[in-house]
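G., the chain you wanted modeled:
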Amino acid sequence: MRSWFLAICSFPLFFTSCTVNNNVKEDDSLAPFFTDNRVNGCFAIMNNATGQFTTYNLNRYRDSSYLPASTFKIINSLIGLQTGAISSDSMVIAWDGVTREITDWNKDLTMYEAFRVSSLPYYQEVARRIGKDTMNFWLDSLKYGLRSIKDTFRLQSAVDSFWIDNSVKITPDEQLGTVKRLYFNQLPFYKTYQETVKRAMLRESNTKYRLGYKTGLGFTEKGHALGWVVGWIEENNHPYFFVLNLESADRNIEMSSIRMKILTGILDQLGFRKGER
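Predicted structure as tokens:
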């Protein structure tokens, strides 16, 4: 029996939401971050010590689902490492010679580098090496995204595009839950692989705080621009987990810069990045 199958049998086989209604504070003071940037969306952050959630647009956070886009690189990396499709975070996949708009994609990349520049071609090749049946096994076991994922994935989408073509969708609440479980090595993958992905996610580390996240960009079925940032911020060894979800009918909106502008603005308004939490 393969090692990755044995590993998954030792862990819970599902993603669950993290919210508890009496622990949720809705903060409408965050609304200007969205309206001033002409986007719809939601935000939530969880204080791990107390279980308290601070949210904006709770209904969207809890009840609406969207394509994961490049946030799926978290799961794609873990499955790749667990199954051996990725041998380590230094494994190189050679550039295919196709020149793409994002310059950082146009070269040979390691897994760590590909994760940091969010290289779609690298992770599409990883998904092809994992294969459809194995990918489907893991996604079905994780109950990742829509509960009808098994039929949707097999019948409607290719193994190298399902996370960007709206075949699979996930709620912001599930995204936050995924990151929380990753942080505590509670996903059904070997601890060393979860630590590998967390190292790739860590973007800022100083004496005041540590900030780890993964971004995502895509388009909804309506053709709206969609943006994600999912991750954690840690101060004084005290983690908080967050998710930011954005949407705009303007396909040409600068979502890459807007999502980080909103995230840092919200974190600062809530008193983070000072080392005082």
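The domain at 3-16+24-269 is CATH 3.40.710.10 (Beta-lactamase).

Shout if anything looks off.
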